Automatic annotation (TrEMBL):
Pfam families: DRMBL (PF07522). Residues 357-461 form the DNA repair metallo-beta-lactamase domain. It comes from Carex littledalei. GO terms for biological process: double-strand break repair via nonhomologous end joining; interstrand cross-link repair. Residues 1-46 are annotated as: Disordered. Belongs to the DNA repair metallo-beta-lactamase (DRMBL) family. One of its GO terms (cellular component) is nucleus. It is found in: Nucleus. GO terms for molecular function: 5'-3' DNA exonuclease activity; damaged DNA binding. Gene3D superfamilies: 3.40.50.12650, Ribonuclease Z/Hydroxyacylglutathione hydrolase-like. This is DNA cross-link repair protein SNM1 isoform X1. Its main location: nucleus. Signal peptide: none annotated.
Length: 479
DNA sequence: GCGATCAGTT
DNA sequence: CACAACTGATCGC
């Protein structure tokens, strides 16, 4: 099961590209099971140990520090523990034990349901006989590009039959999932920033990484390829493809559409036949302000709080890459320096080679008035304890959680209506800083491109939402 | 003991 | 409530 297939041989891709039943309404869910058996480990791992152990901590930026040693790596249990304000281990609060047991019970209830639902008896289930639909995880159709040997963001399916070029649109877990130092199924095409992250965070063998410059045309397996800035996270790209037969495809990966995208020469020069679209917020209820407006709000708010209380610690939450502009803007417009973040995130941010960012960082929590912390840490309780660890240096915390969903039509784009949650000296603002297109931005982009066919890549698993989106597309494209 | 996958969290 | 994107727990080799 180790076939070397050329572009022309790749018969598994439906030539007419209509197997997905999205436009013509034909019912073929079978397209999805165009069976590639998971041929996971059919090849000896011939990778050399080029990456040092130091880098093998995955994308978890916190894994390089901390208090517990695991396989030669230091892995932290908990930020508060590591700063010495909370005991580790033996904390035998009966509360946590109870919730553990609750979870266990919940779990086993789920299992009971499972074997019943899938028509297995309990013995079969416990023996590990898995229902068929769980067993076969094959690459969904919308990750394959018909008429090419290409896939996009499809790394968790082992070797994909007929695929000789694997594109990665950007470095977020739900897109790169499946990549590791053991990847050996074929070349990975991505931007140079993403390429560096594959090396630094996942130790993917360099011989599989093919970095492409933005806005430059390449020819790969007979297809003209161009990556375009996606306005998502650093390194994120739209993938523009022109096949030999004249068809043009655009895969947006994850993106935030904007007016300026509409003046990209290649989008003006070639009519797009098929659009693979990031439909994350493809519902009229998602209206949020531009990034600039949100950043302006964040800066204004920060200024206000600092005037009231100069000894305020500013905190911005972020999980992996993305949202950099939020804390950069605070730092730049209010001359707040340096920025503290942990060593691992710092390494990642500095790898962008972004001169505005690099050079602003410090290792010292105590000497920095602006901290970038994991989003999951941004709660009232945690921040309050955090403030205590910085004894006396600060006497209040102002935190921002930049997330996409925050607002629906009611609150709309009136940023000043945002009410923070606060307790004592800790204030937390959720701000609608989105790195995906709003509904209107999506609509405008689609109306600009006027593709013949749109394949949603998000929210596409239920037929209900697929139909809903298709109705919207039809409406946008009529007349 | 490890990586892969699932389920739960914000 | 939403939701993408994580994190931690459990599974299976």
């Amino acid at each position: 099961m180790d076939l070397e297939i050329t572009a022309e041989d790749s018969t598994f891709f439906c030539e007419d590209g209509d197997e997905n039943g999205l436009l013509n309404g034909s019912s073929s869910d079978e397209a999805e099971s165009t069976s590639e058996p998971r041929s996971g480990n059919d090849r000896p791992n011939m990778l050399s140990e080029f990456a040092s152990e130091f880098y093998s901590g995955g994308s978890d930026y916190s894994s390089l520090m901390g208090n517990k040693k695991k396989n030669g790596l230091f892995v932290q249990k908990n930020l508060l523990q590591m700063w010495g304000i909370e005991k580790s281990g033996a904390a035998d609060s009966s509360e946590s034990r109870v919730s553990m047991e609750n979870r266990k019970r919940k779990k086993s209830e789920n299992e009971k349901e499972q074997w019943a639902v899938f028509g297995l008896n309990q013995k079969e289930f416990e023996k590990g006989k898995k229902p068929a639909i769980v067993q076969s995880r094959s690459c969904p159709f919308y990750k394959k590009i018909p008429g090419t040997p290409f896939t996009v963001d499809a790394f968790r399916y082992g070797a994909i039959e007929g695929c000789s070029a694997y594109f990665l649109s950007h470095f977020h877990y739900d897109h790169y999932g499946g990549l590791s130092k053991r990847w050996c199924h074929g070349p990975i095409y991505c931007t140079s920033i993403t390429a560096r992250l594959l090396n630094i965070c996942l130790s993917v063998n360099k011989r599989y990484i093919c970095a492409l410059e933005l806005d430059k045309e390449y020819e790969i397996e007979g297809v003209k390829v161009m990556l375009i800035e996606a306005n998502h996270c650093p390194g994120a790209a739209l993938i523009h493809l022109r096949l030999r037969d004249g068809r043009t495809y655009l895969h947006t990966g994850d993106f935030r559409a904007s007016k300026s995208m509409q003046s990209h020469p290649i989008l003006l020069s070639y009519h797009v036949n098929v659009l693979y679209l990031d439909t994350t917020y493809c519902n009229p209820k998602y209206r949020f302000p531009s990034k600039e407006e949100v950043i302006d709000f964040v800066v204004r708010t920060t200024r206000k709080y600092l005037q009231k209380q100069p000894k305020t610690l500013i905190v911005v939450g972020a999980y992996s890459i993305g949202k950099e502009r939020v804390y950069l803007a605070i730092s730049q417009s209010l001359q707040i320096l340096p920025i503290y973040t942990d060593a691992s995130r710092r390494r990642i941010l500095e790898s962008f080679g972004w001169s505005e960012l690099s050079g602003r960082f410090s290792n010292s929590r105590h000497s920095s008035p602006l901290h970038v912390l994991p989003l999951s840490f941004l709660g009232l309780e945690n921040l309050n304890k955090y403030l205590e660890t910085l004894n006396q240096r600060f006497n209040a915390v102002l935190a921002f959680r930049p997330t996409g969903w925050t607002f629906s039509e009611a609150t709309g784009s009136k940023l000043d209506m945002i009410k923070p949650t606060s307790r004592g000296n800790v204030t937390i603002f959720g701000v609608p800083y989105s790195e995906h297109s709003s509904f209107n931005e999506l609509r405008d982009f689609v109306k600009f491109l006027r593709p013949e066919k749109i394949i949603p890549t998000v929210n596409a698993s239920s037929s209900g939402s697929r139909d809903k989106m298709q109705a919207l597309f039809n409406n946008w494209l009529k007349s």
